[in-house]
Amino acid sequence: MYCPRCQTQNPDYQKYCSSCGCDLQQGASASSGTQQQQYTPQPQYQPYDQSYQNQPADGAATMSLVFGILGVVLCAIFSIPALVQAKKAIRLGSTDGKAKAGQILGIIGAVLLGIYVVSSLIGLVVVLIAASQGL
Fold first, then answer.
1. Cα 100 to Cα 55: distance, rounded to the nearest angstrom
2. Which of 48, 27, 26 is nearest to 39 (CA)?
3. N or C, fewer C-beta in 10 Å, the chain?
4. What is the pTM of this model?
């Protein structure tokens, strides 16, 4: 039996429509004198969700932010993947600030990595000079 209000198909024994709650018995008695027309339900399509469209960009942006934080806080070597992932997220069209924040943290981590490498080389040179002079 089809609901007279919303045209949802319901079992014949049901009193009320499962979709809209309309009284099916009243609708059946009102339409019993007339010829009942067949209703073919149309498939219901879900609206297109555009949030799936930015998933790769959001994933890359989140990774760049995580690597950027790790690069600044723990080990500056993580700043290189942060820069790579931030560039990828921006290229894929990331619209939130995570990619930009990951890029900035990656740059800060890269500067810290450069300072670490330069200071390590200077320390190594000082130790080698001191060792060669017998100090």
1. 16
2. 27
3. C
4. 0.54
| β partners of residue 2 | 9
Q: In this structure, what are the phi and psi dihedrals at residue 37, rounded to the nearest 5 degrees? A: -90, 150
Per-residue pLDDT of the chain (135 residues; tens, 9 = 90+): 788 888 888 888 888 888 888 888 775 554 544 545 565 666 666 655 555 555 777 888 889 999 999 989 988 889 999 999 999 988 888 878 888 999 999 999 999 999 999 999 999 999 999 999 876
Q: How many CA atoms lie within 13 A of 47 on its CB side?
A: 3
Residue 31 neighbours by CB distance under 10 Å: 14
DSSP state of 54: G
What is the amino acid identity at position 32? Answer: S
In the numeric block, which tokens belong to residue 11? 């079992």
CA distance 62 to 133: 52
Contact indicator for 20, 5 with CB cutoff of 8 Å: yes
CA torsion 65-70-75-79 (nearest 10°) is 0
